[in-house]
Design a protein that fits this description.
261 residues
Length: 261
Amino acid sequence: MWEEPCISGKEGSGTVFFTGCNLRCVYCQNYDLSRSKIGMEITEARLAEIFLKLQDKKANNINLVTPTHFIPQIIRALQAAKTQGLCIPVVYNSSGYESFNTLKKLEGLVDIYLPDFKYWSGEKARRYSEAADYPDIAVKAIEEMTRQAGKTRFDERGIMTKGVIVRHLLLPGGLSEAKRIVRYLYETYGNQIYLSLMNQYTPLDSLNKEKFPELTRKVRKKDYERLIHYAINLGVEYAFIQEGETAKESFIPDFTLEGVM
């Protein structure tokens, strides 16, 4: 229920979380999952079955979370599920650190792309995610995602069925970077894509507080407000923002293998 309103709706998004990640973000909000501390091995046939069961439960979509490193298996599972009646939109929910060749393989299978755009600075990307090339990779990935998605579409309930939503999680002290990302996305794509500007950063126990002292606090309310005003003044019309106190661990799922076993 915690995705953007046009993804979750009233019925909820059918999220499928994949163990592991192709980045190593020091502040990861899903640390146990991304560092492969939890999870369960299943077959491709079982994955296809999970997709279909989520559809039976009236989920608005199939939401693939950190899926990049399982693409061959996911493609086969999606193809199998579609032959068995899967017809709800498929959401590709990722860090934005995606190769062009990977994305090309997904064309025709993914309806909605939900990438992050984490950093504008290669130095920040290296320091926080061990990926100095992240900005260049993300720029190219979002370009291909936007090409594939085409014109944004919604159903009669306001649920997105086609399109791109680019997320940016504001980090403590990251206002300048965030503004550059928002400016780039708006000047490049205008209202062709949606933005999702988030203030829910939570410093967790997994963070190395001695090495990254700048990340040990929440985002200042005034910094987030400045980012929102900046986007509005640029002319951004299609964006999701968060209101109130969102920096809390209730936004982090309790991974119990529900729906997998």
